[in-house]
TrEMBL record, chain A:
It comes from Lentinula guzmanii. Residues 1-75 form the Sm domain. Transmembrane segments: none annotated. LSm subunits form a heteromer with a doughnut shape. GO terms for molecular function: mRNA binding. Its main location: nucleus. SMART domains: Sm (SM00651). This is LSM2-LSM8 complex subunit LSM8. Keywords: mRNA processing, mRNA splicing, Nucleus, Ribonucleoprotein, RNA-binding, Spliceosome. Belongs to the snRNP Sm proteins family. GO terms for cellular component: precatalytic spliceosome; U4/U6 x U5 tri-snRNP complex; U6 snRNP. GO terms for biological process: mRNA splicing, via spliceosome. SUPFAM superfamilies: Sm-like ribonucleoproteins. It comes from the Eukaryota.
From TrEMBL, chain B:
The keyword Ribonucleoprotein applies. Residues 2-76 form the Sm domain. Coiled coil: none annotated. Keywords: mRNA processing, mRNA splicing, Nucleus, Ribonucleoprotein, RNA-binding, Spliceosome. Belongs to the snRNP Sm proteins family. Its main location: nucleus. It comes from Lentinula detonsa. This is LSM complex subunit LSm2. GO terms for molecular function: RNA binding. It comes from the Eukaryota.
Amino acid sequence: MSSLQGYVDRRVLLILQDGRAIVGVMAGFDQKSNVVLSDSKERVYSMEEGVEEIPLGLYLVKGDMIILIGELDETLDKAVDLATIRAEPIPPIRY
Amino acid sequence: MLIFSVFKTLTDQQVTVELKNDLSITGVLKSVDQFLNIRLDNITVLDEARHPHMMAVKNCFIRGSVVRYVQLPAEHVDTQLLEDATRREAQNQIKR
């Protein structure tokens, strides 16, 4: 899974099997796509209020929990006012 | 292995990947590996108004095991060749 190399030291968005979204700086990964994130925060989406960011710090996420890794465009991401965004949480994976 | 090869021939084509959480992501296929993990560039999420989560994401890595469908560009798939290759592989399996 050499294709994760380009994401190291970049701010990334992880989407997990249960629908959680975590942003953080990718500190490292291994061949099972386990990922270490530094300065990570969970983004909790809801229709009732804006996006809530919960600081998590240094996190190790097991590869088999991850469904998607996206590179965040930091200027684009900073331009978004999370407090104004209302959205359904990402649905969990159903096999 | 056959499907892996098919995906490799489709790099740099526009595909739509539907995930098992009903999210559909369109983008340019950049690479694929033996687990059918997919890397997409220049992505857009279907129904972006409902799914603003990935607004600031331009390229992504998708785990192969959570992909439900991949919509391929029909003009870039040689179905005749694929059919022949599939039959050949099936024949080889019988011999073994």
